[in-house]
Design goal:
Length: about 475
C-alpha cells in the first residue's frame, strides 16, 4: 500500500492499490513557500481591482473546464485516493458546483446601505478581499475541499496559496491549477505548494498570508488555530467528527439501515461527516443492527479502478492499522463484533460493532474508517444526551417518519449541521457548513458563511464640509 514516494526535491504520486507512478510534483521548501506567498501578495491588488463580474466569469470557466475533464479527473481520484468511481464522479460535480457558488456570491452580493449616527457625515460599508488566503486540504475529498475554498476566495477578489495533501497532490492540486490556468487566471493569483507538515507550517507562518482555511484533523487544526491566533490571522478550521445518526422507533428499519450504511461506509468511512455513532431506539435496535450488518456484509470490497466494488482501499497502512487497533480495543472493552473487522491487504471491510456504550473509547474517539457503532437508547431524551456527550460537533442526522418530532430532536443536538430524514453525509454549496467544539471554529463555508469568511468589512465615512476641532 504505497501511494507516494519522496526525494529531497520531488514528490511522486502512486496508485494506491498497485504502486504505479501517476506523476510527480516539486516539493516546496519553506523559502519556496514564502516566495509563492509573495507572488500571490503582489498579484492581489490587481486581482481585487478586477470587476467582480469578470472574476466570477473566470471562476465559472474553470468550473466548465473541470466538468469537461470529468473522465480524467474521476480516474485520478480513483487511482490516487482510492475512491469508487461513483464517489469520484460526484466529487467532480460538487467541486464544479462549489466554484459556481463562489462566482454567484461575487455576482449577487450587494453592500448594505447604512446611515451614520452624526449629522453632516455619510458612510459606506463594503466587504473587501482579505488578500492572500492560504488553503490546506486533506486527501479524502481533495478536489471538492480545495474548490470549496478556491471558488469563493478567488471570486471575491482574494489570491490563493494552495497546499494539497501529499497523498493526493495531483487530484488536490494539479487538476484545479490546470483548469484555472486554462481559464485565463492571471499569474500569481493561484499559487500551489506541495509538501507535508513542514510546508503547511511555512504557509501558516508566511507574513503575506492573511487567512488560513484548513480542513483536516482536530490535532493539527488546534496547532494551526493557535499559530493564527498568535499571528493575528483569520482561520477557518473544519476538523474531525464523531457524528451521531439517531434512529427513532417509527422508521422502516431496512430503509434506515440503508441510509446508515451509506453514512458510515461511503469512501471507506474516510469522511469527516461519516456516521460514526448509530443511536437507535431500543424498540428497533436489534432489528436495525441485523439490517445494518446485512447491508455492510453485502458491500463488495476491492480495487475500484479494475473491479466493480463499493468499498475501496484505505489511504495508507498507518490509517489501516489505526482502524484495526480501534476495533480490537472496542471488542476488548465489551463491544460485539457483528460483521467485518478483518482487514485484507489495503482493504478494511465495512464493520458493525453493537452493544457499544458511552464508557468505551470507540464511542468518543473518531475512527476514520468504515466502522459503525450501534448504541441502544431508551428514548429521544436519552438519544440527545448521548449524542451531546462528544467533544466534536460537526454533523448529525435524525432518521424518522415524523418530521416534527425529528426537527424538535434535531434542534437539541450540539453540532453545526443536522439533517432530519437523511443521513450525515450531505453536501450543499448554498448552505452554511462547519462544526463546533473539536470539529472546528464555526461555519466558514457555504452560502452567506463563505462571504463572511473570505472578506472583511471596510467602513468609509465622509464629512462635508470638513470638520473643525478646537485643538
Amino acid at each position: 500500500m504505497t501511494t507516494l514516494t519522496r526525494t529531497p526535491t520531488r514528490l511522486t504520486s502512486r496508485e494506491i492499490t498497485t504502486g504505479e507512478e501517476l506523476g510527480g510534483v516539486e516539493l516546496a521548501t519553506p523559502d519556496r513557500v514564502a516566495s509563492a506567498a509573495r507572488r500571490a501578495a503582489a498579484a492581489a491588488p490587481g486581482w481585487a481591482a478586477t470587476p467582480a463580474a469578470e472574476r466570477a466569469a473566470l471562476v465559472e470557466r474553470a468550473a466548465d473546464l473541470l466538468e469537461e475533464r470529468t473522465g480524467a479527473a474521476q480516474d485520478l481520484l480513483v487511482r490516487e485516493g482510492g475512491a469508487i468511481p461513483g464517489k469520484a464522479f460526484y466529487e467532480v460535480v460538487l467541486a464544479a458546483r462549489e466554484l459556481r457558488h463562489g462566482a454567484r456570491l461575487a455576482r449577487e452580493h450587494t453592500d448594505p446601505a447604512v446611515t451614520a449616527g452624526e449629522p453632516d457625515r455619510t458612510a459606506a460599508v463594503t466587504r473587501v478581499p482579505l488578500g492572500v488566503v492560504g488553503v490546506i486540504v486533506p486527501w479524502n475529498f481533495p478536489l471538492l475541499l480545495a474548490a470549496r475554498s478556491l471558488g469563493p476566495a478567488l471570486a471575491l477578489g482574494n489570491t490563493v496559496l494552495l497546499k494539497p495533501d501529499p497523498h493526493t497532490p495531483l487530484s488536490g492540486g494539479t487538476l484545479l491549477t490546470r483548469a484555472f490556468a486554462d481559464a485565463g487566471l492571471p499569474p500569481g493569483v493561484l499559487e500551489v505548494v506541495y509538501g507535508d507538515a513542514e510546508t503547511g507550517g511555512a504557509l501558516v507562518r508566511a507574513p503575506d498570508v492573511a487567512m488560513v482555511s484548513f480542513t483536516g484533523s482536530t490535532a493539527v487544526g488546534r496547532e494551526i488555530g493557535a499559530q493564527c491566533g498568535r499571528l493575528l490571522k483569520r482561520a477557518v478550521l473544519e476538523l474531525g467528527g464523531q457524528n451521531a445518526f439517531v434512529v427513532l422507533d417509527d422508521v422502516d428499519v431496512e430503509q434506515a439501515a440503508a441510509a446508515g450504511a451509506w453514512g458510515s461506509f461511503l469512501h471507506q468511512g474516510q469522511i469527516c461527516m461519516s456516521a460514526r455513532r448509530h443511536l437507535v431506539h431500543r424498540a428497533v435496535a436489534d432489528a436495525y443492527t441485523d439490517a445494518l450488518a446485512r447491508h455492510a456484509a453485502a458491500l463488495r470490497v476491492g480495487d475500484p479502478y479494475r473491479e466493480d466494488v463499493q468499498i475501496g482501499p484505505v489511504i495508507d497502512r498507518r490509517q489501516l492499522t489505526g482502524i484495526a487497533t480501534a476495533v480490537e480495543q472496542a471488542v476488548a472493552q465489551g463491544a460485539r463484533l457483528v460483521t467485518g473487522g478483518r482487514p485484507t491487504g489495503p482493504y478494511y471491510p465495512p464493520t458493525v460493532l453493537a452493544d457499544v456504550t458511552e464508557r468505551m473509547d470507540v464511542f468518543h474517539t473518531e475512527v476514520f474508517g468504515p466502522v459503525a457503532t450501534v448504541t441502544a437508547v431508551a428514548d429521544d431524551t436519552d438519544a440527545v444526551r448521548l449524542a451531546n456527550t462528544s467533544d466534536h460537533g460537526l454533523t448529525a442526522a435524525v432518521y424518522t417518519a415524523d418530521t416534527a418530532r425529528g426537527e424538535a430532536l434535531g434542534r437539541r443536538l450540539r453540532c453545526g449541521v443536522t439533517h432530519v430524514g437523511d443521513q450525515t453525509v450531505v453536501q450543499d454549496a448554498a448552505l452554511p457548513f462547519g462544526g463546533i467544539g473539536a470539529s472546528g471554529n464555526g461555519h466558514g463555508f457555504g452560502g452567506p458563511a463563505a462571504l463572511e469568511a473570505f472578506t472583511r468589512w471596510h467602513t468609509l465615512t465622509t464629512s462635508s464640509p470638513p470638520r473643525g476641532y478646537p485643538f
